[in-house]
Amino acid sequence: MESRGLRLVTGGTDNHLLLVDLTPAGDVTGRDAEAALDAVGITVNKNTIPGEQRSPFVTSGIRVGSAAATTRGFGEAECERIGELIGDVVTNLGDAVAQERVAGEVKELLQAHPLYPEL
Q1: 62 has a pLDDT exceeding 90
Q2: Are 23 and 7 in contact (CB under 8 A)?
Q3: Do 8 and 21 contact (CB within 8 A), yes or no?
Q4: How much is the pLDDT for 80?
Q5: Using CA atoms, how far apart are residues 40 and 4, in angstroms rounded to an integer?
Q6: Half-sphere CA count of 36, side-chain side, radius 13 A
Q7: Is residue 16 a contact partner of residue 80, using CB atoms and an 8 Å limit?
């Protein structure tokens, strides 16, 4: 995400949750990012950030969790790619071509790592 210009609050995390400051992306709100990412198959939650200037119903950040990725068996490379895809969506809000490309990549990642491969 940092390679796409977003800021990780506290520079990262020591647990399974990551708080992302969207203010470097301009007028993008957490609510807008949450909806756009959901549309391409990436689930995040809008979240306030330290020093929040927006309403808690709008927010300036998103919260990303790693539980679903690790459950599917994603490794470091896949998680890094997901971060890049999140950045691509957030920095290109409203760009249907970018969203379609990201949705396709998300679908490929999910197909490569089925939730219950034994079924």
Answers
A1: yes
A2: yes
A3: yes
A4: 93
A5: 17
A6: 24
A7: no
Q: pTM score > 0.85 for this model? A: yes
Torsion angle in degrees (nearest 10) through CA of 45, 76, 40, 9: 30
Q: Which run of H or of E encompasses 8?
A: strand 7-8
In the structure, what pLDDT confidence band is assigned to residue 24 with cuts at 50, 70 and 90?
Answer: very high
Asked if the model's pLDDT at residue 12 lies above 90, the reply is no
Cα–Cα distance, 84 to 81 (Å, whole number): 5
CATH of domain 2-112: 3.90.1150.10
Q: Closest by alpha carbon to 44, among 54, 52, 3, 28?
A: 28
Residue pair 87/75 in contact (Cβ under 8 Å)? The answer is no
pLDDT of residue 119 exceeding 80, the answer is: no
Counted residue by residue, the chain has a size of: 119
Nearest to 2 by CA among 18, 15, 17: 18
What is the sign of the dihedral through the CA atoms of 93, 95, 98 and 100? positive
